Amino acid sequence: MIFKLAVSSLRFNRLISLSLIGALCSVIAPLLLLFSLRYGIISSLENNLKSSPVNLELKLKTGYKLDESFFNDLEKNPKIDFVLPLTRSLSTTVDIAFNGKIKRDLSAIPSKKGDPLLRASKLDDTLDTTEVYLSENLAHDLGIKSGDSIKYIVSRITDGARQNSVVNFTVKGIVKKEYLSTNALIVNFDTLIYMEDFKDGYEPPVFSDGSKLNENRKFFAKARIYVKTLDDVAPIDAYLRSKNYQTFSMLSSIENLKAISSVLSFIFYAIAITSVVGGIFASAGLILTSVLRAEKSYALLLLTGIKKTKVLMMVLIENTILSSLAYALSLLLFYTGMWVFNHYFTSLLGQGSVVSTLNLMHVVAGYLSTIVVTLLITYFVCFFKVFSLKIADTLRSI
Length: 398
Prior knowledge:
The strands form two sheets. A six-stranded mixed beta barrel has the order 3-4-8-5-7-6. α2 packs antiparallel against α8 and α2 crosses α10. The chain is elongated. The longest helix has about 45 residues. It is α+β, with helices and mostly antiparallel strands.
């Protein structure tokens, strides 16, 4: 009975009902779009910062004599995610050939299990000594795809003559360019050791017959160092500098992006709070107007014996229906606006770029917030108007 009365009241006061729906839409739709931009832009920035191993890497600017204790100390540090020795820069250079095309002086990067670059690219982090991963740019330049066989050429000068060791390597996969932007390749750690040994005059496996091994290696020139989180970059950078190691990291870029994220969040929330407060006042005014227009109807209902709590329930049902309709219309407007934003920025930022998005949890939370705020406003308006309603005085004015 109460529900039928609520629906009948909405039909009778259709102009006020439409006004309330319009007022709620004018607040809800822009808020949804605003929060979708906040979630899309800032969350993308934050996720890119956190997920990209490039931002978690620390590099040594020059060559050092790094012994086993240096690497042991880093591996024991709880902030370190991955650490691996690097040979001298000259020892990492390699040429590769494929289908008559040659790329010279490429940099070979050693890898082992747990490599963040391979993990981020969703590639297997175990490599045989004759397997290799190529950077996306390098693979594109040579037309190489996963599974192809390439000529892996390591050179050295022996008795004044250039000597090449040419070995067939299998391309196991391609590393995404956002994680490895240069023309480079990733090899097994032992492969890199054998490369340096070959260049130093030894006869290591893979590149020679293994007849003359380097058994006196005690030091490495550099290291691949990755921390676990963005917050670990600064303390590890400071730790290395305290040991007189000159480092390079993305620390300044990280701080700048964090500052941008903080500023954008503040702006979004300031606009959102202003919009919400304005919407609450507008909705309260319309609900109050609706209740005042229906005072005589409420008085007649009370005269027939209906309790004030049931009248309150009827008004709550009315405004629940109105706010639900307003939210549904706002969602339609929001998804239209979201499509326009994403379509426009895709042409500027590239395919797959999303600047406006909300997930199901956000949509449900927005709906529940709309219902709760509307019901609270309705309750307070009815508490002061319906509960204090005097039937005789109200009917006398008819």
